[in-house]
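Schema walk-through. Below, the input block comes first and the output block second. Nothing else is stored per chain. Lengths vary across the set, and this one has 309 residues.
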Amino acid sequence: MTPTSTPPSPRPFGRALCAMVTPFTGEGLLDLDGAQRLAERLVSEGCDGLVLSGTTGESPTTTDAEKSALVRAVAEAVGDRAAIVAGVGTADTRHTVELALAAEKAGADGLLVIAPYYSRPPQDAVEAHVRAVADASGLPLVLYDIPGRTGTRIEPETVLRLAGHPRIVAVKDCAYDLLGTQKVLARTDLAYYAGCDEYALALYAVGGAGYISTVANVVPAHLRAVLDAFDAGDTGGAARRQRRATALIESMMASGLPGAVTAKALLGALGLPAGPVRAPLRPAGHEATDGLLTEYERLTADERLTADA
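--- output ---
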């Protein structure tokens, strides 16, 4: 097959990134050994990068010291085989800058920065916040546009202005605004990563860089195969793989439970490092966990049948 003619986008952190859970022990303490084992598995099964201390990583309930320790441990485990992007977003510009500098010192390769939440700042204040973080550190920065959680959009016009900063290189897109995304893609060199798993292939097809996926915690190889098929010119195969993952994506991301809860429930059921979630989150019940496991088993059985055909 002829390769796809879609022009390649910049990929500062690779294509296939996982928004990794933060493993805890049964007592709720940071499990650095478990984090290293999970990171190793994710990278060995196709992840180019790992995003730590994001939404799925339960960043609101981990301490500054835990965030730095997690970056150091995961960087030690994966070395130069994967990029480490550290979530440093808070509602406080000063605190965000402090976390950015700590992540840089701990060995992160990039920073993930949300719009400040709760206070709902206007766009000029959002822009000033992001610039302050980008100016403070030498690391490249990923804008994290997730208004459903922060209450504030990073509007396309704001992104266009921020794109001129030499260290603002990418966007994790959870805004559900494909038109706005394409407007920015058409006018900048920013790397756009799908932050919503159901949009991964759609965004990639119009020039996105790849994804930052919660579902990749459990099926990293399958999601990587979607992008590999597309890059090989097998657009039909890419679409089939994306569609086959739909039921698992829905059960993990649209079941009424946060992705951190569903990812940890499924990882735990599979005997992989995860541990409990921290309050105010609560663990998935048995029925929800059984449903997640059923969808996981259907997808992996389908993969085995396809491989054997």
